Structures are given as C-alpha cells and as structure tokens.
Amino acid sequence: MITPSQLRVKRYFDFILALVLLPILILPIIILVLFCTLDTRTWGVFSQLRVGQNAKLFKIYKLRTLKEEKHILGKLDRSATKLGKLLRKTKLDELPQIFNVLKGDMSFVGPRPDLQGFADELKGDDRKILIVKPGITGPATLKYKDEERVLERQKDPDHYNRTIIWVDKVKINKKYVENYSFYLDLKFIIKSTFNK
Predict the structure, then answer these.
(1) Which residues pair with 51 in a beta bridge?
(2) How far is residue 175's CA from residue 170's CA, in Å, rounded to a whole number?
(3) What's the pLDDT tens digit per position in 98-157?
(4) DSSP secondary structure string for all residues of the chain
C-alpha cells in the first residue's frame, strides 16, 4: 500500500517534472487554445468539476473540443469538431492539465479523475483509490485508451460503462495503489509517452 512518505515523494516529483515541462509546453498550449477558440467560437479552455484525492472536488482543465449548435427547435447539440476529434484521439486536449499538476490537484500518474457519481460513491476497500491524486495517465487509462470507441459500439454505453468498464477500472486502480512504487510511475509515464 502506498505510504505517506511515498505520497510526498510522488508530489515532489510531479511538481518538479511539471516545472521542467511547462516552458516546453506553454507555447503549444497557447497556440492550441487560440485554435480551439476559433474552432468552437467560444473560449478554448474547458473546465469541469471532477472528483479528486479524498473525494475532494476540483476544476480540471482541458482544451475545448465540443461545439454548441442550435437546431431549428432551439435544442442545443454538442458535438466534437474535426480539430476536437484529433485532439481527443491524440490526448492533446489534456495538455492544460499540467496546471492541475502544478496546483496539486492532480498527479502525472493515477486513476483518471471522474465526474461525480463514480469515485465519490465508492464503498469499503474500494475507497483506497481516493488516497492518491487522480492522474493524467495510469494503468486503467492505458488499458482503456480507446474507451470512447468501445462505448460507441455498445447499445447502452452508460450501462456498459458502469457495469463493465468502471468495475474493471476500480480493480486496476486498487492494484496500482496496493503495489505502488516510484518506478511503476516512471514506467507508466514512459509507456504513455511512446505508446500512442
């Protein structure tokens, strides 16, 4: 099981790596924010409340990939633009999460931060997942890197997500917390970087 001292080392590593990467990523982030602003005709950064460490809510940052369009009947339709689909496929929409890491809301490695109604409702032994900060990548993220496409093929995507994918993610993330090591984090970062 991950220890308090391991959590501190993990945080120091996250902060230092984020500081090193920020000068490299800041210009691409600014350019992509401008492109997304023009593409979606609204501010190119999207923020949303997610469940974090110890079930505390925080605002996650992403590049905006969905465009809102009004139909004749006045109904709003949100769909990914061509640029948005590319950003989501390549995970570039998650670049602004480097600021979440700097702030201490997220880690580079950990369970993906969920919307309310998932991690915050875990019971018993499953709640150990909440000991760690949510991550940009991790074992479950790597396994389900094509999650959107998997869900698109289901008759009832929400039911499939809650009964199959989510249950498996909990098992994977529990194993990560129980068998944590710094080298494991390095392995997931390297795998995420080169296994696109």
Answers:
(1) 57, 114
(2) 9
(3) 999 999 999 999 999 999 999 999 999 999 999 999 999 999 999 998 888 888 888 898
(4) ---HHHHHHHHHHHHHHHHHHHHHHHHHHHHHHHHHHHHHTS-SEEEEEEE-GGG-EEEEEEE--EEEEE-TTS-EEEEE-HHHHHHHHHTGGGTTHHHHHHHTS-EEESSPPBPTTSGGG--GGGGGGGGSPPEEE-HHHHHTTTHHHHHHTSSSHHHHIIIIIHHHHHHHHHHHHHT--HHHHHHHHHHHHH--
Tell me the sheet residues that pair with 80: 66
Indicate if the pLDDT at residue 5 is higher than 60. Answer: yes
Tally of domains within the chain: 1
Average pLDDT of the segment spanning 3-22: 97
Domain that holds residue 125: 4-194
Predicted model pTM = 0.89
Burial 103-115 (b: 16+ CB within 10 A, else e): eebbbbbbbbbbe
pLDDT (tens digit per residue) in 66-99 = 987 665 555 556 788 999 999 998 999 999 999 9
